[in-house]
């Protein structure tokens, strides 16, 4: 049970001090005196029974306990702000909106679960989801058309000016329809005997696939069709003998349902990080904070 002695001012002061890393600057932001904000922090530490911050001439740093408490304090403030904003919008009959870009590797597998979790945490918010290749979505993020993007970490040059927070790792897989001739005698060297659905230039997984094939002695594949479209690939792979090279998240549901079969190739070296991409200069609103919580709840449960 929450100690009733903890007040909103305690949480607000603590979060602001952590953000500014200075009692003086935090006091100025909150229009308080430095002795007043220092007293508020001391009261919070006495109530909790732990030192949350270390003070020095150079500023303020979080202790281990402070780092743990900060995350939940920020979530509490974000939730409260969302509630206050929601009441205000209710009077104006407006709703929060969040526009999220989802790369194919998360659009089919992760986003439906995240959308349900987000709807439960923020029932009055409108979520807009846009899918597409890495370069397209990151460009939309830079232009401010997207609030954030979820997907694979791209090449260094494509991530300039973008903040990336890792959520989990994912690898590339080779999949075919049930009954495909290659399933009888799986051999990576034979994939060029059939058409290959291949990641196009600029996609996040293209360099990983190229390195993997070279490492296994596979040269240029002439008979290939380049796309990262999950909608196209799911239909085409099931209706043909094509071998589809794609991120595991794109086809996780199809593999689980038996509509597609993963070839038993060791693709561990293609593993790469999937995470949240944001603009570091953009202000993070309450609804975006709640979305981040929804993502982490789902990732942590899988």
Description of the molecule:
This protein is an alpha/beta fold and 302 residues long. It has helices spanning 8-20, 23-29, 34-48, 64-92, 104-107, 111-121, 134-142, 206-215, 230-239, 252-257, 286-301; strands at 53-56, 59-62, 97-102, 126-131, 148-152, 163-170, 172-176, 196-198, 224-226, 243-247, 261-262, 272-278. Helix 1 (8-20) packs across helix 2, helix 1 (8-20) packs across helix 4 and helix 6 crosses helix 11 (286-301). The longest helix has 29 residues, at 64-92.
- Ends apart, CA distance between termini: 28 Å
- In CATH, the architecture of the largest domain is 3-Layer(aba) Sandwich
What is the approximate shape? elongated
Q: How many separate helices? A: 11
Beta-strand content estimate: 15-25%
What is the class of the largest domain in the CATH system? Alpha Beta
Overall pLDDT confidence: 88
* Structural class assignment: alpha/beta
Q: What series of H and E elements makes up the topology? A: HHHEEHEHHEHEEEEHEHEHEEH
Could you name the CATH topology of the largest domain? D-Maltodextrin-Binding Protein, domain 2
CATH homologous superfamily classification of the largest domain: Periplasmic binding protein-like II
């Amino acid at each position: 049970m929450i100690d009733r002695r903890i007040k909103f001012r305690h949480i607000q002061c603590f979060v602001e001090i952590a953000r500014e890393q200075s009692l003086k600057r935090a006091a100025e932001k909150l229009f308080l005196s430095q002795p007043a904000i220092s007293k508020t922090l001391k009261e919070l530490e006495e109530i909790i029974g732990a030192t949350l911050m270390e003070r020095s001439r150079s500023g303020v740093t979080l202790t281990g306990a402070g780092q743990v408490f900060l995350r939940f304090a920020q979530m509490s403030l974000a939730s409260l702000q969302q509630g206050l904003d929601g009441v205000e919008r209710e009077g104006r009959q407006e709703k929060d909106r969040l526009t999220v870009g989802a790369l194919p590797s998360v659009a089919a597998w992760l986003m439906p679960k995240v959308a349900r979790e987000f709807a439960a945490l923020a029932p009055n918010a409108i979520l807009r989801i846009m899918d597409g290749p890495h370069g397209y979505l990151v460009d939309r993020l830079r232009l401010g058309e997207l609030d954030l993007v979820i997907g694979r970490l791209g090449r260094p040059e494509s991530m300039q000016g973008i903040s990336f927070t890792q959520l989990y790792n994912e690898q590339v897989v080779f999949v075919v329809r049930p009954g495909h001739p290659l399933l009888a005698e799986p051999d990576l060297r034979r994939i060029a005997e059939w058409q290959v659905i291949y990641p196009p230039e600029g996609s996040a997984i293209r360099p990983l696939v190229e390195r993997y094939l070279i490492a296994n002695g596979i040269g240029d594949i002439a008979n290939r069709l380049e796309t990262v479209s999950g909608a196209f690939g799911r239909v085409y792979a099931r209706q043909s003998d094509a071998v589809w090279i794609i991120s595991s998240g794109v086809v996780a549901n199809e593999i689980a349902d038996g509509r597609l079969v993963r070839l038993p190739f060791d693709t561990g070296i293609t593993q790469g990080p999937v995470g949240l991409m944001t603009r570091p200069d953009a202000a993070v609103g309450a609804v975006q904070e709640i979305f981040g919580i929804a993502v982490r709840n789902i990732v942590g449960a899988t």
